[in-house]
């Protein structure tokens, strides 16, 4: 057990955060590029709104969900570095293949492969970071890791839109974003080390029994704080990422923007608002009082609740200027929750269950983000197209309904603090009799 931090150890820790943050960025970029070219794909394949949602969202999420759980189970006992690297090579290669597809079935199969690969990215990555930092510093480290989110969103929006405009083809964006990821996966194998599992806990990998999926689910259910944290993150994905999945398409329809114009506008907001919000969050989490998870949860509850109203105004207004201004307010709230929520959840899960716990969190989040939100919005939009006389107006009302779910996420953050004390004691003494806590490095 490390009791002090050397400069070499500190540099190694942050190198891992940097590399895995870039993995996260590529993951998000490969996912965002679909939202950027959603309308061209829909038109080329002759699909309805609900049809294109099934092709691009549900196809990825379905296999992400069912493959993610066994991968996470394996990651809680195997070399996580190798899993991350292999997963990245797979999803990046599959993303490039999307650019070579010529029909619906080919696109569907390649999209499924992307989902299988992406399932092995975040759970082992966050578990690796958790074993490189003590409990009090995880929220800060994972918030820096989460900078990959705005970077990836910019790559998948602005960069992808520019590539589409230059080559006059939506397929070029997939190829350009997929090929570099294969090379980066090899770099991970060569430069990232697998840390000792549970090194800052009372139970290390040498003494902790491997937890089954059923045991992980049972433990997560008894941890009421972790349950509410997971519910909050899930509903934020339904609210925030569900809205952003359709916003590019909505801007193209409602305001007549091209794919490149809408991508540049949204990509700029995603990158700058997301980056500034994430950096500001990391600075706040570095404050001494933010070592208390209750402060973190309450801060997130207030921010999300306050951002729900402008998220409604984005689609209520008929002014592109007002909608853009509201996005500058809402996007930071959608981004800044990621690192703190991951840290809160990981702190309430014992080391032998962390990858599986994160996989369960990602399962529910992706059901909300990639299945419920896209298909529900698409279905409502399709149903309203006739009565409202156009798919721009129908999509507007579908997004207005979804925007109000932000209040639901805020409720779960605020409620989670009620059982923090007992849940924290349970996870600290998991798997052994109560003992003095180890020194933090």
UniProtKB/TrEMBL annotation:
Residues 16-418 form the Major facilitator superfamily (MFS) profile domain. The keyword Signal does not apply. It is a multi-pass membrane protein. It comes from Sphingomonas echinoides. This is MFS transporter. Keywords: Membrane, Transmembrane, Transmembrane helix, Transport. Pfam families: MFS_1. It is found in: Membrane. The chain crosses the membrane at residues 12-32, 52-71, 142-164, 170-192, 227-249, 269-288, 295-316, 322-346, 358-381, 393-411.
């Amino acid at each position: 057990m490390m009791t002090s931090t050397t400069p070499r150890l500190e540099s190694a820790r942050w190198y891992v955060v940097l590399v895995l943050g870039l993995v996260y960025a590529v993951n998000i970029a490969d996912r965002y590029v679909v939202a950027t070219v959603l309308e061209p794909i829909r038109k080329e394949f002759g699909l309805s709104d609900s049809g294109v949602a099934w092709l691009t969202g549900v196809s990825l999420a379905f296999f992400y969900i069912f493959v993610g759980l066994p991968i996470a189970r394996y990651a809680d006992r195997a070399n996580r570095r190798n899993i991350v690297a292999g997963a990245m090579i797979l999803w990046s290669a599959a993303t490039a293949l999307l650019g070579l597809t010529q029909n619906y079935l080919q696109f569907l199969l390649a999209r499924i492969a992307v989902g299988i690969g992406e399932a092995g990215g975040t759970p082992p990555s966050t578990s690796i970071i958790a074993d490189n930092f003590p409990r009090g510093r995880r929220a800060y480290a994972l918030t820096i890791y989460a900078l990959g989110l705005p970077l990836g969103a910019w790559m998948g929006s602005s960069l992808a839109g520019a590539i589409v405009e230059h080559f006059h083809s939506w397929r070029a964006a997939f190829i350009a974003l997929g090929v570099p990821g294969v090379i980066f996966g090899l770099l991970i194998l060569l430069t990232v080390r697998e840390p000792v599992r549970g090194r800052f806990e009372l139970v290390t990998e040498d003494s902790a029994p491997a937890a089954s999926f059923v045991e992980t689910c049972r433990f997560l259910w008894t941890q009421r704080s972790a349950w509410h944290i997971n519910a909050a993150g899930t509903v934020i994905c339904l609210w925030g990422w569900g809205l952003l999945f359709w916003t590019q398409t909505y801007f193209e329809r409602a305001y007549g923007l091209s794919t490149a114009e809408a991508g540049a506008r949204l990509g700029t907001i995603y990158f700058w608002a997301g980056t500034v919000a994430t950096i500001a969050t990391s600075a706040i989490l570095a404050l001494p009082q933010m070592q208390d998870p209750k402060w973190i949860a309450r801060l997130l509850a207030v921010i999300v609740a306050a951002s729900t109203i402008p998220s409604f105004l984005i689609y209520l207004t008929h002014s592109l200027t007002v909608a853009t201004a509201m996005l500058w307010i809402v996007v930071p709230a959608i981004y800044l929750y990621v690192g703190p929520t991951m840290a809160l959840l990981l702190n309430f899960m014992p080391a032998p269950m962390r990858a599986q716990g994160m996989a369960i969190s990602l399962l529910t989040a992706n059901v909300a983000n990639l299945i419920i939100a896209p298909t529900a919005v698409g279905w409502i939009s399709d149903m309203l197209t006739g009565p409202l006389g156009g798919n721009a107006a129908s999509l507007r009302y579908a997004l207005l309904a979804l925007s109000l779910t932000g209040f639901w996420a805020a409720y779960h953050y605020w409620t989670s603090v009620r059982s923090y004390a007992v849940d924290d004691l349970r996870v600290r003494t998991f798997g052994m009799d109560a003992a003095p806590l180890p020194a933090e490095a």
